Amino acid sequence: MTLPHPALSATDPELAALVGAEEQLQAETLRLIPSENYVSAAVLEASGTVLQNKYSEGYAGRRYYEGQQVIDQVERLAVARAKALFGVEHANVQPYSGSPANLAVYLAFADPGDTVMGMALPMGGHLTHGWGVSATGKWFRGVQYGVRQDTGLIDFDEVRELALKERPKIIFCGGTALPRTIDFPAFAEIARECGAVLVADVAHIAGLIAGGAHPSPVPHADVISTTTHKTLRGPRGAMLMSREEHAKALDKAVFPGLQGGPHNQTTAAIAVALHEASQPSFRTYAQSVVANARALAEALLDRGFDLVSGGTDNHLILMDLTPKEVPGKVAAKALDRAGIVVNYNTVPYDPRKPFDPSGIRIGTPSLTSRGLGTEHMAAVADWIDRGVTAAGKEDEQALATIRSEVAELMSAHPAPGLAG
Length: 420
Ligand SMILES: *Cc1c(COP(=O)(O)O)cnc(C)c1O
Hints:
The protein is α/β, with parallel strands linked by helices. The chain has 2 domains: 46-277, Aspartate Aminotransferase, domain 2, CATH 3.40.640; 286-411, Aspartate Aminotransferase, domain 1 (Alpha-Beta Complex). 44% of the residues lie in helices and 13% in strands. The chain is built from 16 helices and 15 strands. It has helices at residues 6-11, 13-28, 41-46, 71-86, 98-109, 135-138, 156-166, 184-194, 206-210, 247-258, 264-277, 280-302, 328-337, 365-369, 377-393, 396-412, and strands at residues 30-31, 58-59, 62-63, 90-92, 115-119, 141-145, 170-173, 197-201, 223-227, 238-242, 306-307, 316-320, 340-341, 343-345, 359-363. α8 (184-194) links the parallel β7 and β8. The chain binds pyridoxal-5'-phosphate. Pyridoxal-5'-phosphate binds next to α5.
């Protein structure tokens, strides 16, 4: 099933066919990548509007181009909704994506060569938290904390010791492969002790926070950085939020420090997503994401899978496939052929290489957006189990069988924005 794109089909049938193929792929497959989601038809429409045609460097009421009668209102609406939803004094909705949003934080609070601290990428952190291959690790001195090998959890004694020894200007908490609740008050205490700015990078969990399914970093973190396209279910974009005292520094860092004109069609779609996230139904959604992840984790444990930290508190499950004797990449590629889209991922203390690691990372935001509930999680775990077994045996027939079973359930649960 594909959506009508009459103008695109007439002008560029080749590209229109590719869009149709992607629509079909998204409709038929079970998307378990925890950083992905399906936006609503309303968010899709907003992000494809003529707002795209307007330049508006600066901020509402302080622009460098005329003709901002409407754009100023759009941006003010998005900002007001962000402030109301997250309970913050200041919001900047202009960062192009999560990585530039984080870069703006560095620009606001540190100078090149300064020490910054974040979680190591292979432990579940993000590239932009000071990891070596990232500009943030090349231009700043990144010191990195991890999780304990025995528990898979952050060791706050280790974090405190490292912070007091290294005296970072900025401490990042949050990450990309953390299946457990982030203890914002504990990080805030450490940041206070060493005089660092605490940045809560909630890119993965912003929707859970908005829906009351994860504790809020407000008022503990000095700055909150988030993408808008993961659990928050908005367009690809980002936001920076803070108390009023940091507003000026953050705004200056985003523009003119780092970016030129904001992507106004994205700002509009962020406003729509924030409106959707403020509805009672979104609270239900966020709770269901977590309930589904818990049920899926239980079902996987029942089938003998090894989960980092033993389970999950949020939307994400990190599986160590070492006991199954199937490398993460082999499993991920086989599951993809079975219509189950995951990503291979390092696990903490992974003896294998990042491009060929031991684990896979899965999550429930997308399947919950399609209306799947805890009653479906045994079937999902079963498919993963059979898929991983088939991967080990190179059993393509078994993968094809799973693919058709998956497609059948997916056709009964059309994705938002694709329901056509
Ligand atoms: C996804 C993510 C980012 C980066 O977002 P992009 O939009 O991909 O640049 C930053 N930090 C965390 C914790 C993330 O999960």
